[in-house]
Design a protein that fits this description.
It contains nine helices and nine strands. By secondary structure, the chain is of the alpha/beta class. The protein has a four-stranded antiparallel β-sheet with strand order 4-5-6-7, with no helix packed on it. It has a three-stranded parallel β-sheet with strand order 3-8-9.
Length: about 250
Amino acid sequence: MTVMTSRERVLAALSHRQPDRVPLDLGGTRNSTMVVEGYERLQRHFGVTGEPRMIERMMRVVEIDEQVLLGLQIDTRPAFPGGATRGLAADLGPRRYRDMWGVERVQPEGSYYSDLAGSPLAGDIDMQDILGYPWPDPDDPGFTAGLRDRVRWIREHTDAASVLALPPAFVHISQYLRGFEDWFCDFVAEPKRLEALFDAILDVTMAISKRQLQAVGREVDVVLTSDDLGSQNALLVSREHYLRYIKP
């Protein structure tokens, strides 16, 4: 078989065609990269210097350096979107912050991750609380800053497949905003309120996604989105609730 470029290899596999070898990904998405402490060790192994660039504060994951990607023969390259430049996000003290949705998080001593510490829409809320909430502004330039240039750089300077990860849908975000206990209870006690929350979040994430797709045009190779619907061994909710409230 003819040796493929990394881009050809990834696109062949995604198109259900036989690649010359299994394509490799490391750091192409926030879900397939490394926590900062582990990556610092990998940097040392490859002789890479400099502070790792953290791309996701909750999971404390980083962007992988080009030198490492080349050394490991990785076939993908990320085009990581930026975040909000205005709105609710703020540092709240050592190891504590508020994200663009208004969710507060804290990193416990000795932990690799930042845990949920404050859900702004928890408790006894009504529809007006949801409709009047200060949602992120999809027109914030931070969501598209540098995206087109990054995708073009990948195409011009590597043979890798460029990957754009769009915002997650609404399940995880709604859990963080509402708080897990209230979120589960709403499926039974207040499903209309939960649906309104889902819709409000989707209005934001879909608008952000649209602007990011417009920014990169047809130059990006792979587009994905993700969410978290399961536990270690089952759905988070019943199949009936999933089909009625989440799948549509």
